[in-house]
Every structure is written in C-alpha cells, then in structure tokens.
Amino acid sequence: MFDIHGFEMTVFKLLIGIILIVLHLRLTGKQQTVQMTPIDFIGNFILGGTIGGVIYNHAISFAEYISFLLITFAIVSGLNYLTSKFMSTRSLVMGKAYTIIEGGRFTQDALDSTDHKLDPVEFLAELRGMGIFSLHDLQLVQREANGSLTVRRKGEGGVNYVLVSNGQAVADNLELAHRDEEWLRGELSSAGAGELEDLFIVELDADNRLNIVDQAGNTTGLTVSDPAVHEVTTVTEFQNPDSQTPTLEDFAVDGTDKATPGSE
User: Which phi and psi angles does 194 have, rounded to 5°?
Assistant: First the structure.
C-alpha cells in the first residue's frame, strides 16, 4: 500500500539536502567545476551517498540527517581552509605542478618520476584537443596541480608563476621557476617590500618582473636582480629530420667522439 506520509518525508528530505548543497556552494564561491578541489569532489560523493541513502531510511531521524550534512559541510570547509593557508597541506592534497617539456625537450622528471606517470597517448590527445599537432612546436609544457596543461609554443615567450599565496611560499612554483625561498626573501628585502608572510600574492612574470600585492591590495612591481636560471635535466630533444647523426667515418676524422645533439 502506498505510504503518502513516507513519500512526503522522502521528498522533503531530498529538497532540504539539495537546498543545503546549493547554499554550501554559494557560500564557498565554488559554483563551477573548475573551482572545486579534490576535497570538494570527495565531499560531494559523500553528500550524494548520504542523501540517496537516508531519504529512503525512515529509521534515521530528520535531525540526525541534517546534523550529518552540516558536519560534512564543516569538514570539507575546514580541509579547504587548511589547503589554502598551508602550502604543505595543499601539495599533499592537490599534488604538485611539474614540467613535462622545457626548452623544447622532455624533462627527466616527467619520464622517470614515480609521483606522476606520463601516459604518452593521453598526453598527445590533450595536445590535439588544444590544437597542437606536433611536439616539435612546443617550447614549454607544464602539468598544473589541478591537472590542466600549460603550453607555450616556440617563440611565444615564458609563463608566469605565483611564488607567494596568502603569505605562504608556493614551493612547487618556485621549483618550476628555478628559484628558491631564500632568493625570493632576498629580492623582497632588497626592494623594501616587507616580509613574505605579510604579502597576499607575488607573481614572477615572463619578463623577470615581480608583481607584488600586499594584504591591503597595494600593488608594486620590480625587476629581479638576476635573470631567469635554466637548469634543466633533459633526456631528449626534438631534432630537425634533415639533420644527420655522425657516422663512423666522422669519428675517424679527428679521433674524437662527436656525440649527437641532445644526448646525455
């Protein structure tokens, strides 16, 4: 027999669950999928399972149902706060950005690292989706912490890096820029920009310029004292197909070993 009271309660619980999720997304400002962190996705799975399971289980009271949803929201928000305030927690939860191609060459880290395995088929499919159909055209490719690709073709110049976020040094971006925290603090000190912990954001742009925004929103810019350092460990370089590798006769001309370009 159809239980109208039970049906009404099921619909009511479903409606309340949807409303709470929408309010949570509005309050956190994460209405778009690209804004969500791995913690948000895990939280959404838990919330979906909770709502789907509880609305049909009348043994769980309405108060218990609401309490569990609110606790889940609090845990997700708390973890997101920790990842935004502490870079070590952010790297642990969201992963680290890394360079795949630099200077037109694949990096050793992209091929050998156990932390991130590069799938050539998926990688090339992503590039094709971005309208890039030849590895030879690439100057720089980086995998960002959120999984997206940053790509620069040859002749397009460099990229920018966020070196400070909410008073925290972004270690993986410093590594990508071939810098370290000691260098950054020295640059800020020499420019009179204050302590790193007092800054909202510091960007290193493609022109070797630091763009600094403090907690009050004041923006200053300065050119770094030394040019960008390029210390890249590479394994291969995309060669012109017209180039020729040395033959045995070439080796015998002067008795020296002429290694092929790009070889280690």
Answer: 95, -175
Each residue's pLDDT tens digit, 228-261 = 544 444 444 555 555 554 544 444 445 544 444 4
Between vectors from CA 204 to CA 199 and to CA 209, what angle results, nearest 5°?
105
Q: How many other C-beta atoms can be found within 10 angstroms of the C-beta atom of residue 199?
A: 21
Question: How is residue 9 written in tokens?
Answer: 């309660």
Q: Please, which residues have CB within 8 angstroms of residue 153's CB and are 6 or more apart in sequence?
A: 132, 137, 138, 139
Which residue has 């002429």 as its token pair? Answer: 258
Give the Cα separation of 172 and 184 in Å (integer).
13
**H-helix or E-strand containing 168?**
strand 168-169
Phi, psi of 59 (to 5 degrees): -75, -20
Write down the pTM of the prediction.
0.55
Distance of alpha carbon 229 from alpha carbon 48, whole angstroms:
48
Q: Are 236 and 105 in contact (CB under 8 A)?
A: yes
